[in-house]
Design brief:
Elements lengths: L1 H9 L2 H8 L2 H7 L3 H10 L3 H7 L4 H52 L3 H11 L2 H13 L7 H12 L6 H11 L1 H26 L4 H9 L5 H16 L2 H30 L8 H18 L1 H4 L5 H20 L4 H32 L5 H16 L1 H12 L3 H21 L11
Helix pairs in contact: 2-9, 3-8, 3-11, 4-11, 6-7, 6-8, 6-11, 6-12, 6-13, 6-19, 6-20, 8-19, 9-15, 9-18, 10-11, 10-15, 13-19, 14-18, 14-19, 14-20, 14-21, 15-18, 17-18, 17-21
């Protein structure tokens, strides 16, 4: 049986690509489990941890909004920092600030104020979303970009094989002590990963050109010069549609991560330790889809797979909203989790790669940073407002998610109708 599974996995083009990687692609992706595994182990319990320390659903929403406001600031300057200091050093410095520091703050958190402080630091991940992604794909052929982001997703999903440890620990020691331990382990693991990426990587060709072009210019001057790049970007209809799709996906991801576990435990009656069964199921199904499904759609125009992904995710959220407490609700939750997993395997790599594919190579850092900043600004108010809705019912945030994904579906259709004036969009 194991030999058959091994043979099936080795047929996957994704695994062959991972094993054959060299240079910065290998430096970025091979250490990725040190980030993805511990992150995915604690993420499903993050909102439960906040609630256990006394935060209300509204306060949890406020923390999410503060985090997005921090993302606005860091996103706006991320392109300038990435060009000025290079993809490699920017990634190392801001990965440490965005992840190592807040992990230890979360570990020691006592109340709302601690989570606000961690949220402010954590917003710096928008800098490394830009710089790390460029370190990964700058020297890569265009057709390999989406599979590379799929590999990133796949490596994080390896957490599924360790997820039962979370349940055993929660059952034995309780939620709060287990989360504090997980945050500590994650902080150490991520820091090791950041050091390995720094040691194994080299600056990209585009990165060296941008460092030379920005040499002798102050950060403030470079920020001021971004206005022309921004105006060109927002005047491009294709980029505006990409804006909207990515904004909807980002907001839905934030809301689902914030309220899914609360809904499952508080309204569907699932025990805190049993959440792991559904997160493991999601990870395993997503992993299988990344290995077996994504290679089949990676070279297709985005319209059909994107719409299928959006509609499946909307269906999964509808099931969550309709699920009753008890055995029937658990059955619906099972089906919802499988649908969400398949949808995520499609949506995550497409949305991650869209912006990088559409942006000019020399301006990728600034364009992507400005886009991330604009999207964060557009969505900053929503988690706080939706937190007030969650006070009335934890099902309401998922109704809002369905509306946003319906909006993304309309934008996807419009993007596909622009034509092939720019072949890079593959729409």
């Amino acid at each position: 049986m194991m030999n058959k599974i091994k043979a099936l996995l080795m047929k996957s083009g994704m695994l062959r690509m991972l094993l054959s990687m060299k240079g910065n692609a290998r430096a970025c992706l091979w250490p990725e489990p040190l980030w993805g595994i511990p992150y995915n182990l604690y993420l499903p319990y993050a909102s439960l941890f906040m609630a256990a320390l006394g935060l209300s659903p509204a306060e949890i929403g406020y923390v999410a909004s503060i985090n997005i406001v921090s993302q606005v600031v860091f996103s706006t300057i991320s392109g300038v920092l990435t060009d000025k200091f290079g993809r490699r050093w920017t990634t190392f410095i801001f990965d440490t600030l965005a992840w190592s520091v807040p992990e230890f703050i979360w570990m020691a958190s006592q109340n709302f104020t601690w989570f606000v402080a961690a949220a402010i630091f954590n917003g710096a991940w928008r800098v490394t979303e830009n710089s790390w992604s460029l370190l990964l794909i700058d020297d890569m052929d265009e057709e390999d970009i989406m599979p590379a982001f799929s590999l990133t997703q796949m490596l994080g999903l390896l957490s599924a094989f360790f997820a039962p440890l979370s349940k055993l620990a929660i059952d034995a020691f309780g939620l709060v002590p287990t989360m504090r331990a997980l945050y500590f382990i994650t902080g150490v693991s991520m820091t090791i990963k950041f050091i390995l990426v720094q040691v194994m990587s080299t600056e990209t060709r585009a990165g060296r050109r941008r460092m030379e072009a920005t040499r002798g210019k102050s950060i403030f001057r470079l920020i001021y010069e971004c206005k022309d790049v921004y105006l060109r970007t927002v005047m491009d209809r294709r980029m505006l549609l990409t804006f909207g799709i990515y904004a909807a996906y980002s907001l839905v991801t934030t809301l689902v991560n914030t309220y899914w576990a609360l809904l499952v435990c508080q309204e569907l009656g699932v025990a805190e330790g049993d959440v792991v069964f559904f997160t493991t199921l999601r990870s395993v199904v997503t992993l299988l889809c990344v290995l077996l499904l994504v290679p089949r759609i990676s070279h297709m125009p985005i319209k059909k797979p994107m719409l299928w992904g959006l509609f499946m995710h909307m269906a999964s959220m509808a099931m969550l909203m309709l699920a009753p407490c008890g055995a029937a609700g658990v059955c619906l939750l099972f089906v919802s989790t499988v649908l969400e997993a398949v949808a995520l395997s499609i949506l995550a790599p497409i949305t991650s790669s869209l912006i990088f594919i559409n942006a000019e190579e020399e301006e990728r850092a600034r364009v992507c940073g400005l886009i991330y900043g604009t999207i964060a600004l557009m969505t900053a108010v929503f988690p706080g407002v939706i937190g007030l809705l969650a006070e009335r019912s934890l099902r309401l945030p998922f109704a809002v998610c369905m509306v946003f994904f319906g909006f993304a579906a309309v934008l996807t259709v419009r993007l596909s109708r622009i034509g092939k004036a720019n072949e890079k969009a593959r729409a």
